[in-house]
Amino acid sequence: MCLVLALLPQRAWDVLLDNCLISDPLPINHKYYHSGDINIAGIISQIYTFSNTVTFKSHPSHELLGDLIHFVATWIYLAAMELLSTWGRFIPNYKCDRQDNAVAVIGGPNSDVSLFMANILCVYKVPQLRYGSAPVMNDQSQEGFFQTLFPKEDHQYIGILQLLLLFRWTWIGVIFAYYSGETFAETVLPKFSQRGICFDFIEKLPTVYFNTDIAEKVAEWDKTYTDIMRSTANVVILHGEITAMIFLLTFPAFSETFDIPVKTKVWIMTAQVEFTSLPLQRLWDIDIIHGALSLAIHSKDVIGFQNFLHNRNPTSDEEDGFLRDFWQQAFNCVFPDTEVEKQNEKICTGEEKLESLPGSVFEMSMTSHSYSVYNAVHAVAHALQSLHSSVSKRRAMVDGVRQELLNQQPWQLHHYLRSVSFNNSAGEKVSFDENGELVAAFDIINWVTFPNKSFLRVKVGEIDPSGPRGQTATIAVDAIIWPSTYNQAQPISLCNDLCHFGYSKRKKEGEPFCCYDCHPCPEGKISNQKDQDNCDECPEDHFPSKDQAFCIPKVISFLTYTDPLGISLAIIALSFSFITILVFSIFITHKDTPIVKANNRNLTFTLLISLLLSFLCALLFIGRPEKVTCLLRQTAFGIIFSVAVSCVLAKTITVVLAFMATKPESRMRRWVGKRLANSIVLSSSFTQVTISAVWLSLSPPFPDFDMHSMTEEIILECNEGSAIMFYCVLGFMGFLAIISFTVAFLGRNLPDSFNEAKFITLSMLVFCSVWLTFVPTYLSTKGKYMVAVETFSILASSAGLLGCIFPPKCYIIVVRRDLNNKQQLMRRHY
């Protein structure tokens, strides 16, 4: 135990302190110190090599001579405590002067570097700047002494999600580091799931600390690698830190060693990942990162950096031990003053050129991490300048100001760090938000490798947090170089193939929601996009294509004069109209002949006119339905046909009554005459007119589009308005026809040389047959064919009346004029 007495003189203090030194701490291999009035310190991870096994057969500090493959708390604590000691005399919390005080400490790039140094430096309220991922602080009060040179991590996660959605990569794998990635896995990945991203695997990145763990860790690496290669996901997010690249570059070696087939993956790396390799990986293939995408803190070329690199060599600064070690490993040589075990070792001259090294060993461009350190130093300098301005108001001389600056407490600088804002030499603005986080964008980098182990980082996009919400990522897709096996086609990463047009997704039971089957769309529905969740119905005026991939506009359909069916019906209607006119002209010409005068020639003329109008009425059903034609179609047809049928009925009753009136003392004579016939025609017609008038007043027909009856057509039709009234019109007409048929049938055998009742019976038989078959046929057809059925029924029934009643009379009038006399007409046959 060393006892320090406050009353000892200064020389006794020095002797005592020399004896109380911790003379043999765990050594830090690479330290660099340059004395100055004001110093900026850095605790930075730079190199990784395997360490010796700790056997405790000798002092641990002698066994841990090599660097560990990962930083441990011991070195970081030691480095932090050395900053609190007089340089070269390791006595924590004791400094013999103020000249080597660190006004701020830069730490990184690993999160554990920032975490461990905070445990020491925050006690002394030393401002700290980190440029790597944020550690999970056990004591939240420590956050107040940190300034981060890393943008808010949420921004890059949003950007990665936008990339996944842009390329429709919904089936991915995730590998994350033990420390920094756990928060990512617990808080960020669930948000990815909410946006439709599924995970084939989520693996924790294996870590190695001591050689004693190597065998166990290699088995872990082998398992992780096997899971990745067996995965059907073609895209893998690598969330780690600078050591994650070491893990990635070992994959080809694992493939050869364990005979595991290599599957090309598209790697998406977070901004914390940086190209890092071990000396044993120098000759390894780096093609595994070809075509990878990574995020990087936005950076820009710094003026003078290339000249700095060209002038940098081990002879330029002999105190920089790290540079000598790097030089030997990079150029595979040793310096003459190094203990050489092999005589054939290549000797380093110090004149080797850094630009001759492949990119896998050294990059000549400034990386985003280096750019962050550069900005961190300048941020401290600008904060000091602000502090200088605040204390120089009372300055009297330069030495006085210097003394005032040296008298400032470390925590006083932190206030100026949080509000610093400046433009660096690259012309970029550097500033921090209210939470002390860097206000900057992320670059999207595409990695392109070459056979000589070199590579390029090609910027293909940017994630700008200030962009519109949900659109912070912009990327030039065509500029991306994909892994070679994809032949420059955009990779697909899905649990299963996309559902094609005409199919929709159906979830697989027991599988993640990104895994599904594809089922054809039900009839009448379509899917016009790949991988559609549900099939959609077409608009009313469209119908599905045969493959149910898109909607086709329906064609407006109605019975037109250009349609073959419409032309045929129009020709038939006009032909029968011409025949009717011809018959009528014959009867008018021979109106005074006995056969025309027989059985009420006025009824005959009325019947012929009604038949002519019936044939012409059929033309109303052909052509585009309009408001007027719809009003006239059914009502005109009903009234005209009622007149025709009532004329036939009147003629039939007149024939029957005429024969009954020939019997002696018959009372039927008073009913024989024009008055009865006219009453029948007028009353029947009036009844039909009344029904039609009620129909038109209550619910008249109107033009209408029927979207549903036909799959591929929109039927432009006359909506009947009231179906009941329509069938009332037909019903009354049918009622007249049945009465006429019944009366004619009963009088068919009356003796006469020219018994008209026989022909009326035949005509009514045709008429009733047509309209009885009309109803079921009309109800079973759709569209223009329904109109054609009704038009044909009108023509057929009218033609039946015309053809069954008038040809015999026309034959006698024109051909057998000898029979057209009163004697022949009155002759009886017994």
Descriptive notes:
The chain is built from 23 helices and 23 strands. The strands form seven sheets. The chain has an eight-stranded mixed sheet, sandwiched between helices. It has five domains: 10-150 and 368-431, Rossmann fold; 153-298 and 440-486, Response regulator (Rossmann fold); 303-361, no CATH class; 503-553; 564-826, Rhopdopsin 7-helix transmembrane proteins (Up-down Bundle), CATH 1.20.1070. It has 830 residues and is an alpha/beta fold. The protein is rod-shaped and about 160 Å long.
The gist of it:
By secondary structure, the protein is of the alpha/beta class.
Helical proportion? 40-55%
CATH architecture of the largest domain: Up-down Bundle
Structural classification: alpha/beta
Output the CATH homologous superfamily of the largest domain.
Rhodopsin 7-helix transmembrane proteins
Low-confidence stretches: 1-21, 65-69, 396-401
- Compute the number of strand runs: 23
CATH class of the largest domain: Mainly Alpha
- Shape descriptor reads rod-shaped
Please give the largest β-sheet: 8 strands, mixed
The order of strands across the largest sheet is 6-5-7-8-9-12-13-14
End-to-end separation in angstroms reads 162 Å
Strand content is 5-15%
